[in-house]
Amino acid sequence: MSDDPPTTTTTTTPPPQDPTPFSLPLILTNQDTTFSPPSSTTTTTSELTEQPERLTNTSYTTPETNNNNNNNQDLSEPEQLSLTELKHLVQEAITNKDFYFTPNPEEPTSEIISNHEDVTIWGIPLLKDERTDVILIKFLRAREFKVNESFTMLKNTLRWRKAFSIDDLVNENLGDDLEKVVFMHGNDKEGHPVCYNVYGEFENKELYYKTFADEEKRTRFLKWRIQFLERSIRKLDFRPGGISTIFQVSDLKNSPGPGKRELRWATKQALQLLQDNYPEFVSKQVFINVPWWYLAFYSMMSPFMTQRTKSKFVFASPAKTAEVLFKYVSPEHVPIQYNGLSIVDNCDCNPEFTTDDPVAVVTVKPMTKQTVEIIVNEKCTLVWELRVVGWEVSYGAEYVPNNGDNYTINIQKPKKMAPTDEPVISHSYKINELGKLLLTIDNPTSKKKKLLYRFKVDPLPE
């Protein structure tokens, strides 16, 4: 009896004219997800086969969908009435110049707004077009559609923006010291831009001191954080039905603990300002690489949160980080450092692929081999890249021509891949004889592994 592990084969045929052979329905449900293979692939399986994970076309029906809907026509009748009343109050305030703030000795330098100026927020003039409805709905949702409270919040926000000189802050040069701490990259499966918050960067003592050592530095950090958010918000689509929220990912790996008083102070102040002046801009808040102490803290705070707020929070331990991220963000949009295939710094590391090139995801079961077969129907240069999350597997690649001579061309001899090896492998092969490319992953461990791969066909000139 053979001791070889069971083998699973996935066969993929690339269409000659389509350089991106996969399609990924962008979908997220609040129920168990059903997976099916992409229509452009065929799979022959043993009893241990698991299909490439492709989400089916199902309606997007998470509980918070209606709450995040920016289309005023989808509001209930009482909500529509609240919006109408709030617009009336805003129009009255603009007419009476109640939003034209004068200097206040209790605030930082405020500026007098000349009478002919529009009242704007996030670069959008109020009551000039349909985008105003989307903005006002955010304030209404933040105050449970209580009109007077929503109006007060809006007025306080406009006053704060003038006092803090937000419109000037947007164009201020605050340096790039923190560009690895907070950055935008890619979109989630619903099209929301994704913002990564990498608190582990503050493990660097020099950066920590430079950011939080004294009140002046902490104030500068606060200005930088607000500037980053402002610039991100101004890229959103405030038209009804547009994307006007951000998917937040907070990476807690190696993040400073609760004992870092300076960081705690700055974070608390920033959080308060964001809650008071930036309502309803988070579509989902995913915490990854979560340590035990953070979960303990959340457990204590959870009873004081609304169900709506808690529905936006997702927590993932280090072992579950990739699985949770891939639930919401396709691997071609997930940065390499978070187990995806996307390059953050836009370098020329692999110019063949971008976020427009979908990634296939296959689960390799414990103690099995998984073979991906890519059928080649034309003379071409075939380019592919792949990774197995966490590696601990062997990877090999060979080409089998269809000429009937029963031989194979060894492209990559089976090689053991350790967790410390390069996270992504890229290869290309010039094909003059039609046949198939075999990519083999041997998983000798007792754990399931996620295989990510994609390929392109570049036809050879005639």
Task: Identify the notable features of this structure and list them briefly.
single chain; 462 residues; alpha+beta; six-stranded mixed β-sheet; 17 strands; 24% strand
Summarize the structure in words.
The chain has 462 residues and is an alpha+beta fold. It has ten helices and 17 strands. It has a six-stranded mixed β-sheet with strand order 2-1-11-16-13-14, with no helix packed on it. The protein has a five-stranded mixed β-sheet with strand order 5-6-7-8-9, sandwiched between helices. A four-stranded antiparallel β-sheet has the order 10-17-12-15, with no helix packed on it. Helix 1 packs across helix 3, helix 2 (131-142) packs across helix 3 (147-163) and helix 6 packs parallel to helix 7 (261-277). The longest helix has 19 residues, at 77-95. The protein is elongated, with a radius of gyration of 26 Å. The two termini are 50 Å apart.
Poorly predicted regions: 14-67, 107-116
Gap between N and C termini, in Å? 50 Å
Number of helices: 10
The helix/strand class is alpha+beta
Total number of beta strands:
17
Give the topology string: H per helix, E per strand. EEHEEHHHEEHHEHEHHEHEEEEEEEE
Please report which band the strand proportion falls in: under 5%, 5-15%, 15-25%, 25-35%, 35-45% or over 45%. Answer: 15-25%
Brief rundown of the structure:
It contains ten helices and 17 strands. It has 462 residues and is of the alpha+beta class.
Draw up the topology in text.
Layout: E1 7-12, E2 41-44, H1 77-95, E3 120-121, E4 124-125, H2 131-142, H3 147-163, H4 166-169, E5 182-187, E6 193-198, H5 205-212, H6 215-233, E7 246-251, H7 261-277, E8 282-288, H8 292-301, H9 307-310, E9 313-315, H10 321-328, E10 360-364, E11 368-376, E12 380-388, E13 393-401, E14 409-417, E15 425-431, E16 435-443, E17 449-459
Parallel strand pairs: 1-11, 6-7, 7-8, 8-9
Antiparallel strand pairs: 1-2, 3-4, 5-6, 10-17, 11-16, 12-15, 12-17, 13-14, 13-16
Helix pairs in contact: 1-2, 1-3, 2-3, 6-7
